[in-house]
From TrEMBL:
Protein's name in the database: DegT/DnrJ/EryC1/StrS aminotransferase family protein
Keyword set includes Secreted: no
Keywords linked to the UniProt accession: Aminotransferase, Pyridoxal phosphate, Transferase
Pfam family, one: DegT_DnrJ_EryC1
Length: 369
């Protein structure tokens, strides 16, 4: 059976973790520092902190902007469920927003309504590697915390003010996309919010097996976050074993992403003959490929059963989302998100898939009921 999810762990990743074990350095330490340095080099953020979980990263981000308790925090109905649980635990009021059915992302109109309902901060989940119209959200006048756990290193189109030569390390490593599209690529996802959560859990685009890097794109925000980090207990920071795994994956990201894009192109071609569609990507050249979400025109169970007979596991794309956790409560006000919860299937797409497995998935995609 071809599994829906699979971490990209090869010999290099294994050796990095084993080195930590041999050196008896498994708690927070040197590798966490290296992880932060690597993220800063690849994204251009001013500073960052490597924490033990995305939940902790959200907590630190809200502390850094000094958001009073009971304040409204807007989140996507399709965001991971840990977001609503964290907000409730910290004493904030979650305001759950509906999404656009073509992209799976929160709409600006929904955010405007959320602000009218008392939303003072927006946690913008950039799920499935699809980028939002970031400028529209920034113009709303509330702090935006980006969640790039599934869209890391995706790139927005270059702004007119950006110089031709301003490229970060990751763009130089994977600059083929600019050459292919003919359009200059701009800032990385995560470089527009006041803070950015870069989750590294087992189902994120980069996995440390657990953990998150909280990024501060600007100097002013980094000064505040740095002070909080200096006062934090060591148990809040990512252990070296997890950090070692993440560092190697970051260094291999461009190579892995190239493979993902090649597989994605084959899948996208395969579904041209069926009635199901994947998400619209406004910025194809700069988007990150996170698995293969397919919005079904028929029942999920039928597609799952068909794929399973062919040896392919298919899962609901949003099985661990906010709306999946609180469907009865949220569905009436988040109609599009509820529809995607029920109809969006996730097919296996990761660098370790062999040619035979890819060919089998392509065949199934092109013949789905």
């Amino acid at each position: 059976m071809i599994q829906t999810y699979s971490p990209t762990i090869r010999r290099k990743e294994m050796e990095a973790v084993l080195t930590c074990m041999v050196d008896e350095k498994i708690g927070p330490g040197e590798m966490g520092i290296r992880l932060v340095q690597t993220v800063r080099e690849l994204t251009g953020c001013d500073g960052a902190v490597a924490l033990r979980s995305p939940s902790l990263a959200l907590e630190y981000a809200l502390k850094a902007i000094d958001l009073p308790a009971q304040s409204g925090v807007m989140i996507s109905a399709l965001a991971p469920s840990w977001q609503i649980l964290t907000l409730e635990r910290l004493g904030y009021k979650p305001i759950v927003l509906d999404v656009c059915e073509e992209s799976g992302l929160v709409t600006c109109a929904a955010a405007e309504n959320g602000i009218k309902d008392g939303g003072r901060v927006l946690v913008l989940a950039e799920s499935m590697g699809v980028l939002p119209d970031i400028g529209a959200f920034l113009s709303l006048g509330v702090p935006v915390i980006e969640d790039i756990s599934q869209s890391a290193f995706a790139r927005y189109p270059a702004e007119p003010s950006e110089s031709e030569g301003a490229k970060s390390a990751v763009q130089e490593q994977s600059g083929t996309e600019e050459a292919k599209t003919g359009e200059p690529l701009g800032k990385c996802a995560g470089m527009y919010g006041v803070y950015t959560i870069f989750g590294m859990e087992d189902r994120d685009i980069v996995t440390a097996g657990g953990g998150a890097v909280l990024m501060a794109p600007g100097r002013r925000e980094w000064i505040v976050l740095k002070k909080l980090a200096e006062e934090a207990p060591s148990t809040d920071f990512i252990p070296d074993m997890n950090a070692a795994l993440a560092v190697v994956e970051l260094k291999e990201f461009a190579r892995n992403e190239k493979t993902r894009k090649e597989i994605y192109a084959l899948y996208a071609r395969a579904i041209m003959s069926v009635k199901h569609k994947t998400y619209v990507r406004q910025n194809d050249g700069g988007s990150t490929i996170y698995s293969f979400p397919l919005v079904l025109n028929s029942g999920f169970k039928d597609v799952k059963s068909y794929a399973q007979k062919k040896g392919i596991e298919v899962r609901q794309a949003y099985e661990n989302s906010v709306i999946a956790l609180r469907q009865e409560e949220i569905a009436p006000s988040c109609i599009c998100a509820n529809s995607l919860l029920l109809r969006c299937a996730l097919f296996p797409l990761y660098p370790r898939l062999g040619q035979k497995d890819v060919a089998r998935i392509v065949k199934v995609l092109s013949s789905l009921p």
